[in-house]
Write a structure and sequence with these properties.
The chain has a domain of 126 residues: Jelly Rolls, CATH 2.60.120. It is built from 2 helices and 10 strands; from the N terminus they run H-H-E-E-E-E-E-E-E-E-E-E. The strands form 3 sheets. Strands 1-8-4-5 form a 4-stranded antiparallel β-sheet, with no helix packed on it. A 3-stranded antiparallel β-sheet has the order 7-2-10, with no helix packed on it. A 3-stranded antiparallel β-sheet has the order 6-3-9, with no helix packed on it. Strand 4 and strand 5 form a beta hairpin.
Length: 241
């Protein structure tokens, strides 16, 4: 009876409607699994949808990388080769410190008719052969010219303030090149002397004494105390080059 009732309600319209539903459902599934070629673009992709795992090995080639966009930090350690080591540069000359000075003359050797006043002195010990830089100043002590002036009446008379280095067991101090100045002045003038410096080179090991000396060649010399700083001298050893 139930079978006859089902057949009684089974009409052509019912059958066609059922077939149409299956066709729609089947066609939709077919459309979902068969996307036309070149139909998906950047607009259809969700942000961050393409991950590293989704990329095929070798898919990103150098042609796809923007030129100049990669940094050294993008490469694993050891991947970037080092360039060849350049040639070694020439060895520079040994440094020698020379102070500026107000002299520039070579002081005279102290022998003959000279009168000497040692204004300042300082010992220096050299453990090896060295150049010696000597700097000295009269401070506020002024040179006072004699009645005949600081040049004296004779053609070879003069007054010199100079730097010297006295060697062990020597009969007199050795002049420091460039460490002297001639004093120019007339009768009883008082002359202020600028600081002096000079270098005496290739001095062997030993104990020496640097001296600042006021010397009168052929004339007497004297000093006026202006009441200020005292004379001083320093000596510095440097590597000879």
């Amino acid at each position: 009876m139930k079978s006859e009732g089902f057949r009684r309600h089974l009409t052509y319209s019912n059958v066609m409607a059922t077939i149409a539903v299956f066709a729609v459902l089947g066609g939709g599934a077919y459309a979902a699994t068969k996307i036309p070629k070149n139909s998906v673009g950047a607009r259809q992709l969700k942000k961050n949808a393409v991950t590293t795992a989704k990329l095929k090995n070798g898919a990103v080639t150098s042609a796809k990388v923007k030129k100049g966009s990669l940094l050294a930090s993008n490469f694993k350690s050891g991947q970037l080769p080092r360039g060849a080591t350049g040639p070694t540069g020439a060895t520079g000359a040994a440094a020698v410190t020379v102070a500026a000075h107000g002299g520039g003359e070579d002081p005279p050797a102290l022998f003959g008719p000279t009168t000497n006043i040692v204004m300042a002195s300082a010992p220096i010990s050299l453990p090896r052969e060295s150049d010696v830089v000597i700097t000295g100043s009269m401070g506020d002590k002024q040179v006072e010219c004699s009645v005949d002036g600081c040049q004296g009446p004779g053609g070879t008379d003069s007054t010199i303030v100079g730097l010297y280095l006295e060697f062990p067991n020597s009969t007199g101090p050795s002049p420091v090149p460039g460490g002297g100045i001639s004093v120019l002045g007339s009768s009883f003038n008082r002359i202020q002397i600028p600081p002096l410096s000079g270098v005496i080179r290739d001095i062997p090991p030993g104990i020496y004494t640097a001296k600042l000396i006021l010397a009168g060649l052929g004339i007497s010399t004297s000093v006026f105390d202006n009441g200020g700083a005292d004379p001083w001298i320093t000596a510095l050893a440097t590597d000879s080059g």
